[in-house]
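Figure 2 data, in text form.
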Amino acid sequence: MLILAFDTATDVATSALVRDGQVLGERASRAARVLADAEELLAAAGHALGDVGALVVGTGPGSFTGLRIGLVTARALALSLGVQVAGVSTLAALAAGSPGAVPVIDARRSEVFTLTDGTPRVCRPEELGVEHGVRYVGDGAVRYRAVIEAAGGEVPGDASEAHIPWARHHAALAADFGPAEAAEPIYLRVPDAEIPRQRRGISKR
């Protein structure tokens, strides 16, 4: 089966075309290019969009806007192609790309997204509970390298591909395919745009 996978949750969006476990092509760019990247991957592999048998989309956590782009794209494609969708955590894909490493995504607001015992959570970098000698990967690990390394953790070089949530890992992890609506985003907190509204609401009391 031909699978088109993509993740737009972080600043580096990725896409991959996979058939029966074999990666036919992959790209890293920006969320706004996800459809263009998909079309170019298919063309390079000698396929058309109608050949896609299933979709896999990254469900975050990450940028609210980026996540929405990915999920809306997945739903639109699923509807037009009549195929099923599987959602895969961006953190899980990062971890799969670096076995034994802890995934850390920059959450802005001086926070990071990470996994604790397999469960996504948001915390301050100082609350990661860094373990000596353990590798930490992701754009959050790069941004807070000083904090992690000061606590004894290891962070690959800034340009390492280990920091990118490659969509080929999403395809490999995908298990439960179903309606596109079932691929729900992992937000962990309210969008940045909601914060001013909440503050206004509090100030009125």
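Caption note: Confidence is low (pLDDT under 50) at residues 193-199.
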